[in-house]
Amino acid sequence: MSEIAEKVKAIIIDKLGVEASEVTPEASFTNDLGADSLDTVELIMEFEKEFNVSIPDDQAENIGTVGQAISYLEEHAK
Amino acid sequence: MSLRRVVVTGLGALTPVGKTAPAYWEGLVAGRSGAAPITRFDAGKFKTRFACEVKDYNPDDYFDRKEGRKMDIFTQFGLIAANEAIEDARLNEEGIDKDRVGVIWGSGIGGLTSLQAECIAFANGDGTPRFNPFFIPKMIADSSSGNISIRHKFRGPNFVTTSACASSSDSIISAFNYIRLNMADVIVTGGSEAAITESGVGGFNALKAMSERNDAPEQASRPYDKERDGFVLGEGAASLVLEEYEHAKARGAKIYAELIGGGMSADAYHITAPDPEGNGVVLVMQNALRDAGIKPEDVDYINTHGTSTPLGDGAEVKAIQKVFGEHAYGLNISSTKSMTGHLLGAAGAIEAVACIMAMQHDMVPPTINHFTDDPELDPKLNFTFNKAQKREVNIAMSNTFGFGGHNTSVIFRKISE
Q1: Percent of chain B having pLDDT more than 70?
Q2: List A14, A32, A36, A39, catalytic entry
Q3: Contact across the interface for A17 and B64, Cβ inside 8 Å
Q4: Residue A14: active-site member
C-alpha cells in the first residue's frame, strides 16, 4: 500500500472511530463506515490539511469511498 | 385551569467535589474544597491560576471517541449528569411516552473551548476560512439539550435557557412551568458549564470578579468572610428529572422532593454589578414565596448565590433580612460555592441538587473557609460556617443571580400527600 493510502486510512480510522479491517477500498463513508454529512466534510478537510491540497466542492462530492479518496489524493497530492 | 404538581424523581451531578450525585453530596457534607491549580492550560501568565476543575476528567471514561469529540466539554458534562439522573429516574423503562418527555437545559456560555480553539486556528492559518463542520454544533449552547434528547429519544419540548449564572435555575423553572401547564409529563433539566479556558479566566479576570488568592486556592472561595476577594471559577454539571406527581406515583418512581415555587426578577441596575440595596433580590424571593404559596417562616434553609465577592454577598444578605425579617435568624444559610466554586450557568442546578439532598438527609452543607467575621454582616445570622449542621429541612430555597441582573429563586419541599 502506498504511503498516501496508509495516511488516508489512518485519518479515516481516527475521525470515524472505525476498525482498520473495515477500511477497505470499496467501503463507503456513509453506507459502511457510519459517517454523516458533517463527518464527510470533516474528512475532506483533514485530507486537504494532511496532503496540502485544496479539494473543490464539486470534486469532493465524488469522493464517497476509501478507494476514491486514495486515488484522488495519489493524483493531486503535492 | 388548575396547575399540576411537579416532583423530582432523578438526580445527577458531575462536580469539582464529586463526580456523581451521591459523591457530590458526600463532598459537600465533608466540607471539601474543589479548588486547585489549573491543569487544563498553562495559566502562568494569568492573574488567577487556580479553579475548581472536575478532577481527573477523561471523556474516554464516558464516551466512545467518535461520539466524544463531536461534543464540546460542556455538552459532555451535561450528558454525563443527565444520564445519571435519567438512569436514577428509570426514564428508559417501557411504558414511558417519550413524546411527553422534554429536555430543558441551562448554560451561561456554551462551548467556549470549541469557540476559542477554532478562532485561534483561523487566526494562525493563511486566511482561508477552514472551520470544522462540527464547530457550530459544538459551540452553540443548545447542543447540550439537543444531544441529551438524541441520546434518549425524548421528543418533548427542548431548548436551553441562557441568563449567565442564573441559567440553570431558569431552566428548572421553565421545566416546572411546562409540566404544570400540561405541555409535558417529564422534563430532564439542569445545566452544565466548562469555561476554564484562557478566554474564560482572562475574561473574568478583566472584570476583577475572580479571587486572586493563588497562594491558597482551597481557601479562596470564602463567602461572608471579611477577606473575601472574588469568586472561584468552577465547572461541571447537574441534572434533575422533574415529573408530574400523578405520573410519578403511577409508575412507582422514587420521589425526592416537590418543586413548589419559582421566582424571577431583574435588577435593572448594572450589567455586572449587583444593586447594593438588593432590590431585585428582594423581589425574586418574594415572587418565589408567592408562587409556592408559603410564608417566609416556612423556609428552613437558603442555599445562597453567595459567590464570595465583596459586593454581591452583602447585598444578598441584606435582601434576605428584608424578606424574612426576624425569621432570618431562624434560617440556615449556606453558600456551597465555598466548596464547588462558581459553576456559572450550572450553579443553579448543582445547588438545587444540594437543597434536595439537604432535605433527604436533614443536613445543611456548610459555608467553608470562614476565618474572619465581616462586621458588615449581622452576626446573629446562621451562615453554617465551616461544618455541616444537622437540622430538619422541610423547605429549602436556592438563589442564583447572573450578570445582566437576572435573579432566580426556586423552592423545594419534602414530599407530602
Answers
A1: 100
A2: A36
A3: yes
A4: no
